[in-house]
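Q: My labmate handed me this sequence with no annotations at all. I'd like to see what the chain might look like in three dimensions before we decide whether it's worth expressing. Could you predict it?
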Amino acid sequence: MSGELVGEIENMVNATRVTDVENDTVRLEYSARGSGQVNGHQVTDVATHESVRLSDGTETATVKIAVHAVQGDDLLVLTGSASGIAHGGSVRFEGVLHARSTAKKFRDLNGKSLLARAEMTDAGTVKQVWRRLPE
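A: Here is what I predict for the chain of 135 residues:
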């Protein structure tokens, strides 16, 4: 994964909901909370992850993340999509997030796309790494 490191977050899934089941497709919704660092600032976050898992183990997902700076409560909103493959109880995703923020700490990310890599384990943790998309 190339590009400058922008953030690392570790979340814990606190709710899982099956929203639909049809043939070989299961639609899931996860809610998660966590913390880490973005742009060198300590942050907390709340995320909603909606995914479609097929019987062959592939999964596509959309995500919405609200990131709050611990000091000053500046807000960064990330939305995007990813795809991945399930391995046992875990899923590894790669995709693109789009950043929105006018807050001082995150202003340089406003309108930028970030390369995202995440792994959700069978224990319910989600480790995320975000990098600036090379220009």
